[in-house]
Amino acid sequence: MRSRLFFVPLAVLLLALNPALAAEFGTHIAMREKAAATFYVSTHIQGFGDTELMVDTGSGYVTINEGTLRTLKRQGGVRYVKRLQGILANGSEMEVSVYAIGALNIGGNCWIHDVEAAVFPAGTRQILGLSALRKAAPFIFSVDPPSLVLSHCAATAAAVASPSPSAIAFNVATD
């Protein structure tokens, strides 16, 4: 019995002192619910500006439209990565270009660096997908209240460490 009483406070102390655990679930982002049970977050795309992205955990990639890509290219805020055969939510397939965005800020509190984004035609709804959310994992998507709780966020764009491009691998269909 005595060893149990010692173990519990020790475990609590070790968890509190572990900086990796402190980074998990530390950033709360408000979402806005719109029609058809869709949820949006305010986002700042470096080289583009402020925008709103629909949160879609079923999308393998962040998606941007051609208008956003044009602005990012003018500002030097993207680099071409590859072509991708994506499977859309309706089951159809579309070949799209994938670009790496220098950085984006979700909700004003979470900078994420080197995010891969699939590019869709002009006017297409832009999506916050798993290529960004994985970098802020583990995360919680809550509908009541509508919010995202993200992990491992950087407070500033400069504080974000760039991962090795070879360490980024995705095997998820785009919708």
TrEMBL record:
Keywords: Signal. It holds the Pfam family gag-asp_proteas. Transmembrane segments: none annotated. InterPro entries: Peptidase_aspartic_dom_sf. It comes from the Bacteria. Residues 1-22 form the signal peptide. This is Aspartyl protease.
